[in-house]
Amino acid sequence: MTRGEPVTPKSQQRTGGRRPASSTRRVAPDGARGVRAVDRSDEFAQLLRTNTVDVDRPPSRARRSPVVGKVGLALAVASVAVDASAFAVFMGGEVDFAGGICFVVVFLTVIAAVLGFVAAVGGLGRWYGVVAVFIAFAANPVVIVVVLVVAAPEVLTQFGS
Fold first, then answer.
1. Is residue 24 a part of any domain in this protein?
2. Around Cβ 129, how many Cβ atoms within 10 Å?
3. Backbone φ and ψ of 151, nearest 5°
């Protein structure tokens, strides 16, 4: 290259001096030349043509699936059912078997509460998650025993006889 020759971009050198279709020059609204605009989508092209923003349509947001909250709620409801069956077994006289069932229910309610918390905080079925946390907390056998000891200790003395 010698002095005085115009410098051409490599893209023009490859195409033989023609400009590629993607780099067409457009005239800016104020009349200045040399402003390049690449159409990214139809909406973007419309904004460039009209210089306005369409405010009639709200921006589209992808909705999150509420599956985590629903699973947490289902586990919480299942733990209530299993807890009730443990109570029925206990009333039938099988204390050891009822204790084993309650041990399983404790872990089931913890899993339901964790899933409900994740759903509530992460927006993955927020209300399902909140309800799951409350139900799991109320169905936990440890919580039930503590409430019985604090609120009605005379009920526990009847179970011993």
1. no
2. 29
3. -85, -40
